[in-house]
Specification:
Layout (H helix, E strand, L loop, with lengths): L2 H7 L5 H7 L4 H15 L2 H10 L3 H18 L2 H15 L4 H31 L1
Helix pairs in contact: 1-6, 3-5, 3-7, 4-5, 4-7, 5-6, 6-7
């Protein structure tokens, strides 16, 4: 199984799956999306700073936290990439490998945040 290929094939945001786990509680999901946007909007910059400072262990912990939070809102692609970065850092990856993964994560984060905004707006208008 190729984790990267699997992550790339996932939707940016699987609202249906997330709502299923929340027993259809749309207002709770809207709240979770807002909290995610607030708490993780600049996570890529924080990860980059930790890596620049040589704190791979703390960066791995933050990637782990992002992985779980993204999974809870149905952002499977972002969760998969965060998990890949976490594993890479836990395995003492070379700096250029971590930088490559972080660049991919940044792209997925930006796209996911945009999709989260659109989804929250659609749900709020219902």
């Amino acid at each position: 199984m190729n984790d990267r290929r699997d992550a790339e094939q996932m939707p940016l945001l699987d609202m249906r799956e997330a709502l299923e786990h929340l027993s259809g509680k749309t207002q709770l999901y809207i709240h979770m999306l807002a909290v995610f946007r607030k708490e993780y909007a600049d996570v890529d910059a924080h990860l980059e700073e930790l890596l620049r400072e040589g704190d791979g262990a703390q960066a791995a912990r933050l990637a782990h936290k992002l992985k779980g939070a993204a999974a809870h809102i149905g952002a499977g692609r972002l969760s998969g990439l965060a998990g890949e970065l976490e594993r890479s850092l836990a395995g003492n990856a070379r700096h250029d490998d971590a930088a490559r993964l972080l660049a991919q994560l940044k792209t997925a984060l930006m796209a996911s945040l945009e999709e989260i905004g659109r989804t929250a707006e659609r749900l709020t208008q219902r």
